[in-house]
């Protein structure tokens, strides 16, 4: 039996990289990680965590930009976050009025990525533990070796 994977699921905008309220990021040149992110990721990596990103990208569904542009933003972000390794990025491309099941806070995208693990969701200074009986995120405190960003 393999050991469970320890993982942190991050939101993208306003958690790992700066977010300008009321705007949609589609220009890779405008990606700016928070100063604290490198140290936080290093601490979590040292504690044995893997990193995943789960993000709503409704600008695609609203027609503001394309999936290709989102992927270019992700490529720039991954480059700027090195040496940290993001295992996988998943995102909901739908506008809120499309009522899909993948838009956060619905758990579909995060659950798609879960493995038998201690999973922590970190988004905008809050954390949820998805290990509850329903598998749905519930509020919890961060793991003892982690600091919320």
Give the neighbour order of strands across the main sheet.
Answer: 3-2-1-4-5-6
Task: Report the helical percentage.
Answer: 10-25%
Average per-residue pLDDT, rounded, comes to 80
Compute the number of helices: 4
Fraction in beta strands: 15-25%
How many DSSP E strands?
Answer: 6
End-to-end CA span: 33 Å
Radius of gyration: 15 Å
The biggest beta sheet, please? Answer: 6 strands, mixed
Class per helix and strand makeup: alpha/beta
Element order, helices and strands? EHEHHEHEEE
- The rough form would be described as globular
> Uncertain runs with pLDDT below 50, 5 residues or more?
121-149
Secondary structure layout:
Blueprint: E1 5-10, H1 37-46, E2 49-56, H2 58-61, H3 67-81, E3 86-92, H4 108-113, E4 117-123, E5 126-129, E6 138-139
Parallel strand pairs: 1-2, 1-4, 2-3
Antiparallel strand pairs: 4-5, 5-6
Please characterize this protein's 3D structure.
A hairpin with a 2-residue loop joins strand 4 and strand 5. This protein has 149 residues and is an alpha/beta fold. The chain has a 6-stranded mixed β-sheet. Helix content is 23%, strand content 23%.
């Amino acid at each position: 039996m393999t050991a469970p994977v320890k993982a942190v699921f991050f939101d993208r905008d306003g958690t790992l990289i700066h977010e300008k309220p009321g705007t949609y990021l589609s220009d890779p040149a405008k990606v700016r990680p928070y100063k604290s992110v490198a140290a936080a990721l290093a601490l979590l990596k040292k504690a044995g965590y893997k990193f995943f990103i789960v993000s709503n990208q409704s600008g695609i569904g609203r027609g503001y930009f394309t999936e290709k542009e989102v992927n270019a933003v992700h490529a720039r972000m991954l480059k700027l976050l090195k040496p940290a390794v993001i295992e996988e990025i998943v995102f909901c491309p739908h506008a809120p009025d499309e009522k899909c099941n993948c838009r956060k806070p619905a758990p579909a995208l995060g659950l798609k990525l879960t493995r038998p693990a201690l999973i922590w969701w970190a988004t905008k200074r809050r954390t949820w533990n998805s290990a509850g009986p329903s598998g749905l995120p519930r509020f919890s405190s961060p793991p003892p070796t982690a600091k919320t960003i």
